[in-house]
Amino acid sequence: MPMHDWNAYRQQLVDGVSGLAKLSPDAVKGYVILSGAAQKTGHIDAKTRELIALGVAISLRCDGCIAVHSAAARKNGATREEVAEALAIAIGINAGAALVYSTRALDAFDTL
Known about the structure:
Blueprint: H1 6-23, H2 25-37, H3 46-60, H4 63-75, H5 80-111
Helix pairs in contact: 1-2, 3-4, 3-5
């Protein structure tokens, strides 16, 4: 059984962003332009872009990003195994970041 109704959640996001766009159209337009800019280079295929986006999404803990980019990864032909590998890379990077920042915390402790 799924942990979350991702389809309903994605629709809630679409509705919420539409509402925000009515209140602050320039902010949403700016996001759309920024989001689309990376897709225009053509150096990385759409599937790879979505796998990277999923890794970033879990790093940022953004359920909306997970919903959108999971659907896009599937649409662009990503397999479950490829998604799992991308997520494993993100897990490793997050663990590495915690390790690096642990040294900063010890430095702060020692200095202060």
